[in-house]
Amino acid sequence: MASATENHSISFHQYHLEDTGRVRYRKICEIEDRQVDQRVLDLMAALNEAALSRAAIGFTLPLTWLTSHSTLTGGPRAGAAA
After folding, report:
1. For the segment 5-15, what is each residue's pLDDT rounded down to a tens digit?
2. For 72-77, which contacts have Cβ atoms below 8 Å and span 24 or more sequence positions?
3. Cα–Cα distances in angstroms (integers) from residue 80 to residues 12, 38, 59, 60, in the given order
4. Which of 14, 36, 39, 82 sits CB 3.0–4.6 Å from 23 for a disulfide?
């Protein structure tokens, strides 16, 4: 007797042809040449969306303040204005 349901999902992986090393989707900062955490990208997208909303009503915060007060980017920095 066979099961009435089965998993039909197909997953694909990409491999480097020369050495069969797995190719992954890492987000690398072009300036710092290091990997960027997806949570930071999500935070920046949310801040950008919020900034667009605030711009419509005339309220903005400088990007330096936003990034210096983010827990994902290290939290408040020494000397950062509160």
Report:
1. 777 888 788 88
2. 72/37, 72/39, 72/40, 72/43, 73/40, 73/43
3. 46, 24, 21, 18
4. 14
Tell me the C-alpha distance between 64 and 59, whole Å.
15
Residue 26 resides in a domain: yes
22, 13 contact by CB (below 8 A): yes
Q: Which of 70, 72, 71, 68 is nearest to 81 (CA)?
A: 68
Assess if residue 66 is contained within a domain. Answer: no
CB 73 within 8 A of CB 40: yes
Domain span at 47:
14-61
Whether residue 37 is contained in a domain is answered as yes
* pLDDT, tens digit, 9 for 90 and up, residues 1-48: 666 777 788 878 888 899 999 888 888 889 999 998 888 888 888 888
